[in-house]
Each structure stands twice: as structure tokens, then as C-alpha cells.
Amino acid sequence: MSHLRTEGLSCAIAGRILLSDVDLDLAQGQMMALVGVNGSGKSTLLRTLVGLQAPAAGRVFVHGQDLHALRTRERARRVAYVPQEEQPPGELLVGEMVALGRVPYRPPWALRDTVTERDTVVRALDAVGLVHVLDRPCDQLSGGERRRVLLARGLAQECDLLVLDEPTNHLDVRHQVQLLQTLRATGRTVLAAMHDLSMAAAHFDEVAVLHKGTLHVLGPPRQALEPDVVTRVFEIDATRLADPATGREHLVLGPGMPALTAASVSGKAPEPRTHQAREDHR
Predict the structure, then answer these.
(1) pTM
(2) If exposure means fewest CB atoms within 10 Å of the residue's CB, which of 51, 108, 212, 243 is most exposed?
(3) Which residues constitute the domain of residue 105?
(4) Cα–Cα distance measured from residue 46 to residue 38, given in angstroms and rounded to the nearest whole number
(5) Mean pLDDT throughout 211-216?
(6) How many domains does the chain have?
(7) Would you call 58 exposed, middle or buried from its count of C-beta atoms within 10 A (0-12, 13-18, 19+)?
(8) Alpha-carbon gap, residue 267 to 265, rounded angstroms
(9) What are residue 32's phi and psi, to 5 degrees?
(10) CATH number, domain at 96?
(11) How far apart are CA 246 and CA 228, in angstroms?
(12) pLDDT tens-digit profile of 49-96?
């Protein structure tokens, strides 16, 4: 069942079209990574998908309903969005910051339901490993801790759909992996813009590759991040190496990689779905 779907979506900034004819279909409980070079339109697409800016063309559907036709409060109950570089106000306590995720559920001008909200806030902070800083001011947090607090606010919003812009930014490797594992464990539908292609390949069900104003490739990581695609889009050598201990394949990036063999390129896997291929299929 489609949780998030777009039809012929185009996104623009100041009247300039950045992306055209984007068709996404994200199933309930699925995790999709959005990748592309800087300036490819990832953040603009995410802002359009959560209703913060109107599409230049096309439509966005959440559980079959036109997202941009919903009231702001109703959208906030359906989609939780965590932007890339938001800074929590330094004077707020961590618990107060995370509790802002509960605002869509409060009646206008209502006081906080402190008992219920505190339980939700504690669960969200526990999920990101920061329950011990509940009563600490936000300006006493490190960059990585602030990032995790913002993610906890998104979790506290208790939406089935999470849209995240670079969720692993400012996190060390251990916390990057823990965060992605936590997102998986929630069972929620996740769409996340990612810079780290290796993380995208290892932790996501689908990968959408933006390139030159279009949705260039969409498919499982094994196909969407096939070495030829990575080289074409990101202009960097790529190959896949098998872990001798587990047999799992890992995407390896950078110069000096071993020569690609036919098996490592194809892996007997289907061809990646380019935008044109998906149009022909329809």
C-alpha cells in the first residue's frame, strides 16, 4: 500500500524549476534514501513533500489524500519533518524542545498535558540515547546531541511518516548506525536525504537518485547504486566488495578500487529503473 506517492511532481525556487516529473511511491513501513550531488534539489523536494512549499506542478499524496489540500495542523499529524540545519533555541530545556513535537495534538491555546507528554518525550529521547539530558539546556549540547534532540522531537510527533534531511549529519559513525537502526525498529515509513552512499546502500530498502533535474534512478540499493550509476552521477569510482565474514556486499567509494568484473557490476541483478524506463513500463 502506498504511504507517500507523487505524480508528475515539479519543484521550483524563485520561479526556477529544479526538478521535473518526479514520480515516487513509498510503501507503508519502507525506508527510502534520497541521494544526489549538492544542488540536485534534495532539500527542495523534501520541503515540497511535507507541504512547506507548493509544487510547481504535480501532486503529493499521503495515504491517498492530497497533502497540499490538508490544513497545516492535519499535515503535522501525518508527516514529521526534521530539517538539516535547524538550531534548537539555547534557552529551552531538552525536554521542552522535544515536547514541541506534541503541538499538533494540543487544542489551540491549551496548556501541556504534562503527564502524557512527559512519557512521550522520555520515550523519544530514550530512542536516540539522550534521556539523561532531559532537563539540560539546549545550549549545553554538542552538535551531534542537538541533532539527536531534533530527531527525538520528530519521533515525539508520533507520525507514521518521517521525512528527514540529512539525519546522520554531525553524528559519529556509531550514532549514525544506531540512529538508522532505531528508525528501522520504529516500523515507520521513512524518507531521508542522505550524503553517505554507503549508509544509504546498507540501511534503506529503496534509493532515489536525483541527477540533472530529474529522478534519474529509483530502485533497491543494489541496482540504484550500481557502480556505473555512482560514477556517472557523483563522478567517483565505485565498486562492491563482499565481507569475507558475513558475505554481505558493501559499496566502496574512491580512487584505486579493484578493477570491476562483470559479476561485480551486474551481480545477475535486474537493470536499474531510469525515469524513462519507468515511463515506458507504464
Answers:
(1) 0.85
(2) 108
(3) 2-281
(4) 14
(5) 96
(6) 1
(7) middle
(8) 6
(9) -120, 130
(10) 3.40.50.300
(11) 25
(12) 999 999 999 999 999 999 999 999 999 999 999 998 788 788 899 999
